[in-house]
Structures are given as structure tokens and as C-alpha cells.
Amino acid sequence: MKKIVLSIAMCLLAGGMMAQSASDKAAAKEAAKALKAAKKEAKANLAAAQKVKDDIYARIADKEKPASEDEVLSACKMGQGIVVKAIESGHLDEDVLGQAYKLSGDLAVYPLNIYLNAAKDKLAFDTAHYYDNLFILTDALHNELKYTKEVKGEQGNVKYLEGKRKSLAQSADYFAYAGQFESECHHYDRAIKAYDFALNYAKAYPEIAEQLDMHVAPEQIAYYAYHCAHEAGNYEAMDKYYDQAVKFSAGALGVKQVRAQSYMERGDTASWANYVHDLCIESPSDNEDFIQILLAYYQKQGFDKMEKFADEVLAVDENLLIANYGKAFVKFQAKNYEEALKCYEKCTEIKPDYYDAWYQCGMCKYQQAMALNSTISGIKNRQQAQKTLEDTKALFGAAIPYFEKARECAPDNPQKWAYELKQCYSVTGQSAKAAEMDALL
Question: I need a surface site. Which of 34, 229, 330, 342 has the fewest CB within 10 A?
């Protein structure tokens, strides 16, 4: 009984295997049929694209009625779409891939030239298609070289392939242009991709690395990419391009200033302060605006830090106006009027028509006089009190020349100096001049 059951099971198994084998054969047959159809379609698409190219090239060469630029662009776009479909299908034989990529490149050349001429003449054009077409062109040149066998001899293609390598090398500059075109259209992601491709062109196409000679220097391209990334708020890309962009000497200062600005945009005040500090110490005269801002920043942290920064700047450039004024301000706030006066006087040497510095020089003497005057009532010795009064008058008198210089710097704005001059003239017994000042108030 067991043997009979076993025999039945074996028969069922054999039948199943036969059925499965038949199914696999059918599937394989269908797959082969589909592959054959796909190859046929790819071949037909390649032929159709070739016809589009031949037709439009003939129209371009027609001297009596040549194709218009719009017709050329339309035909090339259509042919390009067909040939790309054939290539991307994966069903073209390898021995025709070189031909397919050549066709792709031929259909990309005329649009490129049309767009470059439009850009040269400052005419509007389709920057998006310029961008896409350029990637297609260089990919086509690269793959034509890859899939075309070199044939030497009189009937060979060595010179032809060398020409293709030259064309591929020359196309590197066009990616820098693509970055500019797309950036101007606020297509920042595409612009950054184009700039990045230009910077890494030799890596993408190593076959032309030795003959690559771009008209736009890498550091200048990085400079464009850096500013484009800033416009896009892409701080990661900014950091990526910074080291190379700052080497572009014509724009190095702007690169540094934009980086400082970006830290504030990110809300990273600490990094901003550290970066700007180093920037100011590196080149004080190029960063006076930043020095002024940073002095105010350190002032909030304490006058000691403000003075320390001013001293760091002055150690590099002792004649920098804003640093001298910053140090004078610290000394004045500490009521160290003699030291403050020296710093303010240094400011007037650097900038003789600097109203604020002349006024503050006067205020140094004025505040000394006011402080000394407040002690007179507490002095018991009459002779000493009289001497202190005379010293006070002398200090008020010493302030006058400074206030008068401030007056020369702002003659039409008496509210800035008339009150102090009135007080000084009154105390020193120059009543007529005091009255003159009073009339101006």
C-alpha cells in the first residue's frame, strides 16, 4: 500500500516539473520576443533621430531659405528627446553606442551656439534649455569617446577623436556661464550644480584633464558659487566654497564680509564675533565698519574687553581712526580724562575736521573743570580754595580752543557747541563772548 502511494506522489511531482518547464519556456520565449521588439524600437528611434538631424542640418545649409533659430531649436529638442530615449532604453548594441552619442552631441551643438550668441548680444534666451542641453552635450562627447574605437592609419579617426576631446575640454567654461545664467534667473540650485560641475570638470572627464584650459579661473568660479549660495541661503555650500573663493583677489574682501554677514543670518553671534575679530586684526584698514560694530559689541561685555580689542587693532595700525576713538571712549567713561585727551587728540591728527574728536577733547578739560569745581565748597583753607578756583578757571579756559575747533567743523549747528562755550566764556570772565553764545542757543 505504501509503495502505491509513493508511486502516485512521484508521478504528480514529474507532472508538475513538466508543467513548470513548459511555463519557463513560454516565459523565456515571451522575454526574447519583448527584447527583440525593444531592440527594434531602440534601433528605430535611433534612425528617427538621425533623420531629424539630417533634415534640420540640410535646412540650416539651405542658402535660399535657411531654417530659423526657433526651427533649429525645436527640431534639435525633438531629435534629442528621441535619441536619449534610444540610449536610455539600454537596448542599443554596444557597437552603435558611439554613433548614438555622436548623434546626441550633434543635436546639442547648434542650440549651444544659438544660446551663446544670444548671451553675447544680451538677448533673452531659454537659460533652462541651455543648462540641460549643455549637460547632454558633454555627456555625449564623453561617451562618444568612450564607445568609439580608435582607428589609426590614413583612413583612421585619430584626428577626429582628438577634435572631440578638444571640444569636450572647451565646454568646461560653458558650465561657468550656465551658473551665471541660472543665478540671474534665481535658479540657485541649478546654478550651484553648474558651478560645481565646472570646478570638478577634470574629475568628471579625466580623458581631457591634461588639456583642460579654462578661461575662468577656478577661484573666480568658486567666488560666483559662493555668492550664489549666499543668495540661496545655502550656508553649507558657502562653507564649501569659501577657502577657494577667498583666493579670488578681486573679490576676497567681499567674500569675507559676506561670510561675517552669514553668521548673523544664522543667528550664530559667537562665530560672527570670532570671525570678524580675526578679520579686523588681519586687515584693520579694510574693515573699519566691522571694527566699529565690534567695539560696540565688546562694550556690552565690558569696557575692559572693548579697550583690549582697540589695543589689538592699534598694535597693527596705530593710525586707525575708529580704534583710537574707541580707546578714547573707554578712557573717558573711566574718567581718565588725561589719557582720553591723548587719544582724542590722536584722532584730530588723523582727521583734522573730525567734529566729535575736537568736541570730546574739549569735554575732557570741561569734565576735569567740573570735577575740580565741585570740591571748592569743601575746602576750608581760603588760599587753597582760591587756588583751586583759579585751576578750575584754567581748565575751563583750556577747553575753549577745542570747542572752538569743534565749532569750525560744524559752524551751522550751534546746538552742538554753543552751550559749552557759553559756560567756559562765562567762567573765564569773557562776558561778551558768553553773550554771543547765548544768542545762538
Answer: 34
